Amino acid sequence: MLRGKHILVGVTGGIAAYKVCYLVRDLRKAGADVKVIMTEAAGKFVTPLTFSALSGHDVAGDLWTLNQSTGSDIGTQHIALANWAEVFVIAPASANSIAKMTYGLSDNLLTIVALASRCPIVLAPTMDADMYLNPVTQQNINTLRERGYVVVPPEEGDLASGLKGPGRLPELQIIIDTIERVLSTSAQDLKGKKILVTAGPTHEAIDPVRFIGNRSSGKMGFALANAASLRGAHVTLVTGPVQLETPRNVTRVNVESAEEMYVAVTARARTSDAVLMAAAVADFRPQTAANNKIKKEAGKKQFSLALTETQDILHALGQKRKKGTLLVGFALETQDELRNAREKLKKKNLDLIVLNSLKDKGAGFGSDTNVVTIVDKKGKVEKLPLMSKFDVANEILNRLKKLL
Ligand code: CTP
Question: Which CATH number fits domain 6-184: 1.20.1440.20, 3.40.50.1950, 1.10.150.20, 3.40.30.10?
Fold first, then answer.
């Protein structure tokens, strides 16, 4: 699996840098071509010479010095490294470097390459427990995770400071397994394909301050966008209002209402190879949205709101389908699940429908995992076990790929 793969290892300042020497050795033993970038602080713990000897390449560190291993000039060596890498593994990843990457700071070669690379980035946060558990570090790690960085969480145990807690570099085998998994799901098998994904809920205005919405978190759609992008597709993500970071290399279009989503999706569907409608689009909206805030009236105990149907985006796409554009729908059912999903697939003229169940543990709104059943046009039904939404996304894309 690792043979011949281009693995870029980024080492930041931390005592665990010495363990990463063994990581580089093991990756090389497995046949990978490994290059190392170090920050200045990393060089206080392990010398570049050590990594150079282990990797068989000069170690890149100084932005201003020409480096033989990149085979390029000073002005472009960061881009050359970013393009060379099939995966970029940052271990140990210090709190400082994580914060820089979160905010796009790029004051050394490692953070510049992180900013410039399109390949998957694996991050192994390693630091003292208090620094790791600090809300700002947690928030930064979460932001990077939402953007598509693959985070290998630290292990709990004795730390260099004498503290006990999370912060240790995980077993090297865990990092190597993660690299293999990432490489297998980032095979560029969707390269050049144009994929349109929708995500999140829609908000249907009642008045300027109130709306009708639903509990969709957008996580499934964002996972799909991230996975498709890692597999080389050009991804556009049309999303309703959600609190999620945009995955790397994905074009995001924000919309509020079903109507806005309809316009955004239909305008782009024609030029897409596939449309995956993971959004939970409102089926009804208030007939009119009041221009001013609706006031409570004294003595009025009840209030009714007239609703009118929204456009069914998928149905509309299914009716005037361009040959070659695949359509994937999502269904959330609470009863007669399979029968309803099959009916939707037929009625909306879809290629695949992904059935979500609210009944399964670990599935549904806001969760990072999901349990889905995928039904295709020919009636084939596949129930997948509980897995992360990212893995579900790849399973859906595996099936889509066969149809593309
Ligand atoms: N969908 C859509 N436009 C709408 C409503 C739904 O494109 N106005 C899409 C969703 O994104 C999803 C699929 O249709 O991919 C199924 O949505 P769902 O709401 O479950 O199905 P409905 O046909 O609206 O049926 P019901 O709400 O009765 O279950």
Answer: 3.40.50.1950
